[in-house]
From TrEMBL:
GO terms of molecular function: DNA-binding transcription factor activity; transcription cis-regulatory region binding
Keywords of this entry: DNA-binding, Transcription, Transcription regulation
InterPro entries linked: HTH_LacI, LacI/GalR-like_sensor, Lambda_DNA-bd_dom_sf, Peripla_BP_I
SMART domains, per the entry: HTH_LACI
Domain HTH lacI-type: 2-56
Name of the protein: LacI family transcriptional regulator
Length: 337
């Protein structure tokens, strides 16, 4: 078994330097750090996680708290992409990730905070949960390092998609294609929904668009049945929209099915647009017009900030990182200008 002493001899440095390089200490030159880490990898060195935890008083394990309203778990394409980026960045820094849960099947149910302490997580990233849940608030208010995704707590670091600018860009693109009767089926109430809906109204006002109340409906994220029902409601209006925006790309599937059931072609008879930029949208026929969120940056930034908060608590300050997306034009919005 390769030891730190073996690595030190191979690199011509002290065992202390090897320890610092492998534990990401800052008081060692970057060139020396890279040499040591590269040599350790080539020699097949694997640190003993138990010994490292005892020495550093850290578990090198990050908790992930995620519960969406549809209970879709890792089939949730958007979050799965964010998590993959989070995981990649965590692993580059020698951290593992584990999901946080309430352990409902135990005789005594644990709260989120209790589970985090029980597992000894060094920190937690929170995404796509009910942020009004008292257990979530309890965890955020604790001394556990926490980073949130797409929700702002005053005393915590948050990584946010720019939902305001995203909706603005998407609506302006649809407007540029000649559409003036644009409906919006938004998700259930949340900070994300609030930002997108406010931006929708504000941008419509800037463009001089009139948005009748009956053009704005609600359906759950990833809720194909709800999206289909809302689509049917819009089609029944005396003056139906020429374009419908959906809560997300997945919900668009329900809308597309309803439109085709009514004998309508996309985009020849009616246009649609999603939000998120999931892979599934690029395989739809026609390819879905959507706002593509930068999941690579969202997950990567969240991991970087959480690890920095764990390793450098005295120099980390609450901040909000905003990540912009971009319009993916696809082919589901027709030009009627």
């Amino acid at each position: 078994m390769v030891s730190m002493k073996d690595i030190a001899e191979a690199c011509g440095v002290s065992v202390a330097s090897v320890s610092k390089a492998l534990n990401n200490h800052t008081d060692i030159g970057e060139e020396t750090r890279q040499l040591i880490r590269r040599t350790a990898k080539e020699m097949g060195y694997f640190p003993n996680s138990v010994a490292r935890a005892l020495k550093t008083n850290r578990s090198y394990n990050l908790g992930v708290l995620f519960t969406d309203e549809a209970n879709s778990g890792l089939t949730h394409d958007y979050f799965a992409s964010v998590l993959e980026s989070f995981k990649e960045t965590a692993e580059k820094n020698d951290y593992d990730i584990t999901f946080v849960n309430r352990n409902r099947e135990r005789r005594r149910k644990m709260t989120y905070l209790e589970h985090v302490r029980y597992r000894g997580f060094d920190g937690v990233v929170i995404a796509c949960v009910d942020f009004e849940d008292p257990e979530v608030a309890q965890l955020v208010a604790s001394d556990i390092p926490v980073v949130t995704i797409d929700h702002i707590f005053n005393n915590r670091i948050a990584v946010m998609s720019d939902n305001v600018k995203g909706m603005q860009s998407l609506l302006r693109y649809i407007y540029s294609c000649g559409h003036r009767r644009i409906a919006y089926i938004h998700g259930h109430p949340s900070s994300v929904t609030g930002s997108r809906l406010s931006s929708f109204y504000k941008t419509a006002e800037e463009l001089g668009l009139k948005v009748p109340d009956e053009y704005v409906l609600e359906a759950g994220y990833r809720d194909t049945d709800g999206a289909a029902a809302a689509t049917q409601q819009l089609l029944a209006l005396p003056c139906p929209p020429t374009c419908i925006l959906y809560p997300d790309d997945f919900a668009c599937l329900g809308g597309m099915n309803m439109l085709r059931e009514k004998g309508l072609r996309i985009p020849e008879d009616i246009s649609i647009a999603g939000y998120d930029g999931l892979r599934i949208g690029r395989h739809m026929d026609p390819k879905l017009t959507t706002l593509k969120q930068d999941t690579q940056k969202l997950g990567g930034y969240a991991a970087e900030k959480l690890i920095s908060l764990i390793e450098h608590p005295k120099t980390s300050v609450p901040e909000i990182l905003v990540v912009e997306g971009e319009v993916y034009e696809g082919r589901s919005v027709g030009n009627i200008g």
